[in-house]
Structures are given as C-alpha cells and as structure tokens.
Design brief:
Layout (H helix, E strand, L loop, with lengths): L9 H10 L4 E7 L5 E7 L5 H6 L1 E4 L13 E6 L5 E2 L7 E9 L11 H15 L4 E13 L1 E6 L4 E6 L35 H13 L4 E6 L6 E6 L2 E2 H21 L3 E3 L13 E9 L2 E2 L11 H12 L1 H8 L5 H4 L9 E5 L5 E4 L12 E3 L8 H17 L17 H4 L9 H10 L2 H4 L6 H21 L3 H7 L3
Parallel strand pairs: 1-6, 16-17
Antiparallel strand pairs: 1-2, 3-4, 4-6, 5-6, 7-11, 7-12, 7-13, 7-14, 8-9, 10-11, 14-15, 14-18, 17-18
Keywords: ATP-binding, Cytoplasm, Ligase, Magnesium, Metal-binding, Nucleotide-binding, Phosphoprotein
GO molecular function: ATP binding; glutamine synthetase activity; metal ion binding
GO biological process, one term: glutamine biosynthetic process
C-alpha cells in the first residue's frame, strides 16, 4: 500500500512534516546530467518564505551548469513532493526542488525538472491531449563486489556476484550451485533466484515512498540482473518516481552489503539493462492511442510512433547518454537497435504491447532507452518527438513483424538503425533538435551544453584511454 500524502499547498507540506515528527528536511534536486543532489536543513526553517524565495547554492560546482563568475543559484522546494525519507537515521522529510536564477527570479533553463514541466505545459497548449503517461521499466544489476580504477599506467574493472555463472567452480565453503547461466536468469524460482526477498524489501520501501509497484522478478542475465516494475504516471511525476526508484533500490541494497548499478552493459557476453518506456496520451478520461488501426492503435497513436522513429537517432543522445549505452545496443541480446515498430517483436525499437485488449491499456513501448538517462530530459524529449509526428501527420510505414536479426542482408539494409556509438548520437542531436525547441521546452543553450559536455568530458576521454581489451589484442604486435 502506498503512503504518498495528498499535499496541495505549502501549509499542507509544513503540517505533514510536523505530523510525521520530522526534525530535518532534505532538499533534493536533479543536476543536468541525471544525478540526484541534496542539502539538508532543520525543519524549523520550513516556512512560506523558504518555499517562495528558495535557498542558495553554488551552481558552478555541478557538472555542465554555471561558470564560477555566475555561480549563485537557488533551490525552491515543491511542497507537493513531500515524502518521508526511509533511510535517514533521524526523521527527515524530503522535498524535490526546482532550480532558479536568484538574480532574475526565473526558472533555470538547464534545470531538467523545469524542462519536463515545460513539456507537459506544451502538450496542453497543442490541444492534442491533457496528459502524457510514462511507464519506464528500469533494469539493474545487484552485485556483491565492484572494483575499478583508471590511471596513467593501469586500467581495470572487476564485478562479482554470488549468482555469477563464472563462480560455479569457486570454493565458497561450500559452493551450492544455483547460479543462473549466461542468459539463464529469466526467471526460475529460488534457490536459483537468490534475490527474491531483497527485491520484495525494495518493493515495500518503494511503496512506503508513494511509488506503486506492479511486479518484480529476476531478469535474463546472470550475476543478479533484476527488474521491479512500477505503475505509470504523468511525465514529471514519473521522472520524480524514477529518482525515488533509483534511490530506494541502491540504498536497500546497501543495507545488505550489496551494490546496484543501472549501467547498461556491466557484463560482457550477456544481456544489458534497458529502460523500456511505455507511453500514451489521454484527453480527459479518454485514451487517445486506442483505435481500429494496426494492433488496435489509433491514427494519432501511429503518428506518435512515427515521430519517435523519425527522431530516434537524435533521441538516443538523451535516452542512451553514455558510451556504455552503445555496448548494449548491439545485435544478439534483444537489443532494439532497428528503428521499426511491431506489435510483438522485441527486436524492434518500438513495440505495441498486446497483453490486454482494453482501450485504456493501449500504448506504445520505446525499447531503446536505458536507465543511465536523466528521466526528466528523456521523457520530455520522447514526448516532443511523438508530438512532432502528430503535428506533421507522419506515417510510420509498414510494421516489421519479422525476426529482424534473421532478415536477408538486402532487406535489413532498408531498416534504419540506432547510432553505433555516443558520438554518432550527439551528431544526430546537433543536426536534429528543432522539434525539442517548440514552446521553448528545450532551449538552444541546454542542447548545446549537453552536446558540449558529452563530447568533451565523456567521448573524447574514451578515445584517449587504452583499455584492457586492447592490451589483450595488441600488446604482442
């Protein structure tokens, strides 16, 4: 049972903190690249002035934000986001904040939550729909040990899991077996699934935080790959929920001396972790994607799909924003790299789920994203791409109801593909982002800052560092 309070005002938020006995207030906010940041104050500082005028912080110390000569920024808590933090030793109420410029008093153009809020507002101005619902399926690995280091003269990583297929021969005093093989984790019962109780605890804590859980299970890969499905929500609220999701999953794991990663491809030779994202548009109480077309979709729903596919290469710069993301997007691992759509084909980038026949369940699923994405930016960009498809009445073409990986080469060549690496994705975004600028949802400044940071701080260093694999292949040349 979820325990999310119903809070509509500053007064409600302050009263909630008092009723819960909170003595501290944690102010959380999303940085540009997708990491939750926070600072904490005593609850005696919670008053209307704090919510309306905010609290200052140094914006130059955060990646891709302010220069040092213009570093002052301001946090303003959203009173409706109040939750009790389940991990603090002392009773602590938590608020999600928006970021403002203290000089102009205006929202900050690179605040991801503000961008997501603008996307929701833009949707309403189009008259197409009132609400966009999102349901991400963020997969993750639960490991028992992780070590890595990169220096001038060395580079290595090593992960370990008691479930790892590589540990069948390890002396564990005793080794009891029950280790899922490569691609063998979907989804046998215990004792092969040794993480059931841990995922249940994660699910219960999520519900305590107001995030409704649909299902949890082991995923395909060995080494502790898991999934906890959470109920869909509107765009901004879903991005908020996704941050609570990651926070809860990681901290519950830490309680048990385990660690969680949402890194898309931490294991070579096995499935990576995606974030298949379900989307639908509603107007009032009417689902707009249900109709008489292919797979029960409406013409508007198919146009939305067309927009996603048309802009998919640019979208990957935001939905798959790491160099590691493109080690998942390769053939052979259910990786949705071909930019096509289908009703049941999991190798296509867009799938139309057919589990239920109810019009309310009609939706599309974009399978390319992964959970390294900043949810606020990724969901906003996906909505803008789909709306562009509707506004321009795009045609998605014929569905591809075939095994894409077994298509003849000449037929496969006609199916567009996702970028092969992060650099290609950034080039695609640089060439195709006008659709993001509609309604000032994304600004040119925000897009340029994203591309610049990724190129300079992530892509270029990845080109310069030797890797252990290169030593294995080339040391004895």
């Amino acid at each position: 049972m979820t325990t999310a309070p119903t809070i509509t005002s500053i007064k409600d938020a302050i009263e909630f903190a008092r009723e819960q006995g909170a003595i501290m207030a944690d102010l959380k906010f999303m940085d540009f690249l997708g990491t939750w940041q926070h600072l904490t104050i005593p609850t005696h500082r919670l008053d209307e002035e704090l919510f309306e005028d905010g609290l200052g912080f140094d914006g130059s110390s955060l990646r891709a934000w302010q220069p040092i000569h213009a570093s002052d920024m301001q946090l303003r808590p959203d009173p409706t986001s109040a939750r009790m933090d389940p991990f603090c030793r002392e009773p602590t109420v938590s608020f999600i904040c928006n970021v403002f410029d203290p000089i102009t008093g205006q929202p900050y153009s690179r605040d991801p939550r503000y961008i997501a809020q603008k996307a929701e507002n833009y949707l309403k101005t189009t008259g197409i729909a009132d609400t966009a619902y999102f349901g991400p399926e963020a997969e993750f690995f639960i490991f028992d040990d992780i070590r890595y280091s990169t220096a001038t003269q060395h580079s290595f990583y090593k992960v370990d899991s008691v479930e790892g297929a590589w540990n069948t021969g390890r002396d564990e005093g005793p080794n009891l077996g029950y280790k899922p093989a490569l691609k063998g984790g979907y989804f046998p019962v215990a004792p092969n699934d040794s993480l059931h109780d841990l995922r249940t605890e994660m699910s219960l804590v999520l519900e305590q935080c107001g995030v409704e859980v649909d299902v949890h299970h082991h995923e395909v890969a060995t080494g502790g790959q898991s999934e906890i499905g959470i109920r869909f929500n509107s765009l901004v609220r879903m991005a908020d929920d996704l941050q609570w999701f990651k926070y809860v999953i990681k901290n519950v794991a830490r309680r048990h001396n385990k660690t969680v990663t949402f890194m898309p491809k931490p294991l070579h030779g096995d499935n990576g972790s995606g974030m298949h994202t379900h989307m639908s548009l509603w107007k009032g109480n009417q689902p707009l994607f249900a109709g008489e077309g292919y797979a029960g979709m409406s013409e508007l729903g198919l146009q939305f799909i067309a927009g996603i596919l048309h802009h998919a290469r640019a979208l990957t710069a935001l939905t798959n924003p790491t160099t590691n993301s493109f080690k998942r997007l390769v053939p052979g691992y259910e990786a949705p790299i071909r930019l096509a759509y289908s009703s049941r084909n999991r190798s296509a980038a867009v799938r139309i789920p057919t589990y239920a026949s109810s019009p309310k369940a009609r939706r599309m699923e974009f399978r390319t994203p992964d959970a390294s994405a900043n949810g606020y930016l990724a969901f906003a960009a996906m909505l803008m791409a789909g709306l562009d498809g509707i506004e321009k009445q795009m045609d998605p073409g014929a569905p591809l109801d075939k095994d894409i990986y077994n298509l003849p080469p000449e037929e496969l060549a006609r199916v567009p593909s996702a970028p092969a690496n992060l650099e290609e994705a950034m080039v695609a975004l640089a060439e195709d982002h006008e659709f993001l600028l509609r309604g000032d949802v994304f600004t040119e400044d925000a897009v340029e800052a994203w591309i610049s940071y990724k190129m300079e701080k992530e892509i270029q260093p990845s080109h310069l560092h030797p890797t252990p694999l290169e030593f294995a292949m080339y040391f004895d040349v």
